[in-house]
Amino acid sequence: MPGPAWSGRWESPLGGTFFDPAVQGGGCLIDLGTHALDLALWLLNDFSPAYCCAGIFRGPGDSPTPANRWGTWDPAMLRTETGAFGQVVLQSGTVLSLDISWALHVPEDREETVTLCGTAAGAELFPGGYTISGTQGARLVTTRYQMPEEEQSANRAQLEDFLSSIREHRLPLVTAAQSLVVMQSYQDFTAPRGNFVLWNFKEDATMHEEKVALTKNQIAALRRAAETRSIQDIFVVACGGSLATLYPILYILDRETNAVHVSSVNAAEFFHNPPHRLGDHSLVILNSQSGTTPETVSAARLAHERGALTAAFTTVPGSAIETVVDFPIYYYDDPINPYPLLLSIFPEVYQLAFALVDLLNGSNCLPGMETAMEHLEAVCQRAVSDFAPQAREFARKHRTEQLIYTVSAGLDRCIAYILTNCSFMESVWRHSSPLHAGELFHGACEAIGKDTPVVAFLGLGRCRPVEERAVKFLQRVTDKLTVLDAAALDLTEIPEELQEYIAPLVLHSLASDFCLQLSHLTGHPMSSRRYMGVVKF
Asked: Which CATH class, in words, describes the domain spanning 204-363?
């Protein structure tokens, strides 16, 4: 049970910005607690908090005393906590006990102290050194180590590491993602629920289960409505990455049934030049993350007016697109506080695709896909962890590249498009183009040289030979080829008959992490935009 402690024996600051939450952001918890929590998590190499329970107190703030080492203070100026005590439970089951204060009636200071209690030994880190405690035979033994004076300056060491990481093109010892976890935990500690704070992952799990049930009900409702219509055409309609995420519906239905004709159409094109077959026997499936994409909302309204059955994926209940379709289907996308992967767009699209397959073929494939989707997050997390060194190496090698092509075929086309359009171009502002592996030899290959960066996908489906041919060529002509191969993935939890369809989703997680590492290394946030949401189109 690790326990970081930054408890001062009457070392309260005298005011200034320390007592003003609007400027300081908080009291002792943000002043000292963030450092304590960051150090404890870093020593454990585990940045996965599950829930916390904490008490935040004004403490002796209303009783100023000249015994305070920095002198007395004005209680009227104090608008922050002076003490915060609680526990953070990690997903691994490890429990952190956090004790933070500016002023306590205790025998001595325990500043910058972290105690780690393991099954084989214990350690305590304190200013200037550390101890290791354990057993030797029948004896309890504690060994004290004093750090050389030149190694005792944490600030200097942090600055040196940060500067070295820039010079050596590597990640710093403490990454931005880890710092974000610390600040999220701080927000959980200071949630506005009185002096006592409780944030429990079990409550979130229940809410997630409710969302999963809601999504299944929405898909089932759409299926029931489709049963009452003689559906002959299915159109998937959206823009950009939202359209790419709907592509599996086209791909899966094209290969699993001959009962309908399926088309994928950009929303603006659909609106300005609608398909002649659009009408009462059509099902139009749209996707607008915000629910307000003008082209997609206009396409949805047109489809509804033409008598088509309409459904839209969106993350925003009550949005504009929900008002013009027959059936909304909610998914969840929050990079800051991520939802379970099961609630994201791709798993829900796959479940809808197989619900339609069952409707059209009279089969019962959906339950198997639902079960596979429940395992997807663990499979993706394992893959990202296994390929983490390659992702960091990719970022190091490509940090100055201004153009990166992608090459793919089959169902991998949608994830290659997302990597190109949404990650490389939209998020980190690199030139890119999603090349079809089968089209590579019909002109595009002439643009590939020895120094041309390419990311190529190898799936498990029937189009793998198409991708393999492209990879073999690229291995001969460029020194900057990165291959993301589904054959190297551990898909143990996924039924073999579904691996062809699900492997692209795992490759998508890998590709996303490769670009994320590039973003971290270059200091270019994935959320940066010059035009989208900034300039009126």
From this structure: alpha beta
Q: What is the pLDDT of residue 536?
A: 82
pLDDT under 50: residue ranges of the chain: 9, 192-203
- Of 145, 131, 109, 111, the residue nearest 35 (C-alpha): 111
Query: What pLDDT does residue 92 have?
Result: 78
Domains of the chain: which residue ranges? 3-117+163-199, 118-152, 204-363, 377-522
**H or E element that contains 189:** helix 176-189
Strand, helix or coil at 414?
A: helix
d(CA 17, CA 14): 9
What is the C-alpha separation between 328 and 316, in angstroms, rounded? Answer: 10
Element spanning 52, H or E? strand 49-57
Q: Are 2 and 94 in contact (CB under 8 A)?
A: yes
337-365 pLDDT per residue, tens: 678 899 999 999 999 999 999 999 999 99
pTM beyond 0.85: no
Residue linked to tokens 């940045």: 47
Tokens of 419: 């990597």
What is the SS3 string spanning 211-226? HHHHHHHHHHHHHHHH
In CATH terms, the fold of domain 377-522 is: Rossmann fold (3.40.50)
Using one digit for the tens of pLDDT, what is the confidence trace for 161-170? 888 888 877 7
What is the pLDDT, as a whole number, of residue 14?
58
Architecture of domain 3-117+163-199: 2-Layer Sandwich (3.30)
- DSSP structural state of residue 108: S
Is it true that 204-363 and 377-522 share their CATH fold? yes
